[in-house]
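Example pasted here:
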Amino acid sequence: MNEITPLGWIAISIGGLILISTNLSLLTLLTRRQSRKQSDPKPLGKLIQTFKNPWEPEDRQWQELSRQVKELQRRDWLKDKNATTEQND
């Protein structure tokens, strides 16, 4: 039976390290993928929603601005109305 030379042992060790590191990296990617799926269940659904209504975030901001403007106008109208009634009294 032939003995394995030190260079052979080095080659076997490097091959084993490559095999182990490949398996560990695949396991790590698999666990990350599963945790990401739990936190964001429908990334494709979000993409489809973006295609259906691409300006939805901006629309929400415009609606909020519109609501705030209406509220300010209402306050100004009430303030003017109260000032008018006070002058008439």
Observations:
- Residues 6-39 form the longest helix (34 residues).
- The two ends are 119 Å apart (CA to CA).
- The mean pLDDT is 85.
